[in-house]
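in:
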């Protein structure tokens, strides 16, 4: 199984390799606070990642500081005036926010279906080659 990032308690971690030192390392992504971890195997890196998240949350609790969250559930988008107008008109039955959320969901579902279809195609080709 290919792993491109780590996830734990709502936090996402990067995976990078240092070939000179034969080490894997990473940091928590999508947040301002810097939290890093490292390991010599994927299993050790994943464990170090979870420990880093737990330690970060514990330090925040001890210092009565609210931990930084990578995804807060809101973001600003910039569109041209024409796209903004068209979206506002199209969303008259609901809010513009709900309209944009639905558009994002639909796009993500299409991307997921494309990815699954591509994986199935590769699997079929691979199985034919092995037969």
């Amino acid at each position: 199984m290919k792993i491109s990032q780590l996830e734990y308690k709502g936090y996402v971690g990067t995976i990078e390799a240092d070939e000179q030192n034969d080490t894997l390392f990473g940091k928590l992504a999508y947040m301002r606070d810097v939290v890093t971890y490292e390991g010599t195997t994927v299993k050790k890196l994943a464990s170090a990642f979870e420990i880093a998240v737990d330690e970060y949350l514990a330090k925040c609790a001890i210092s009565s500081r609210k931990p930084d969250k990578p995804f807060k559930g809101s973001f600003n988008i910039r569109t041209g005036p024409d796209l903004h107008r068209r979206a506002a008109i199209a969303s008259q039955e609901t809010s513009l926010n709900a309209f944009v959320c639905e558009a994002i969901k639909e796009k993500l579902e299409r991307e997921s279906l494309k990815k699954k279809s591509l994986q199935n195609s590769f699997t079929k080709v691979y199985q034919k080659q092995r037969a």
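note: The chain has a mean pLDDT of 89.
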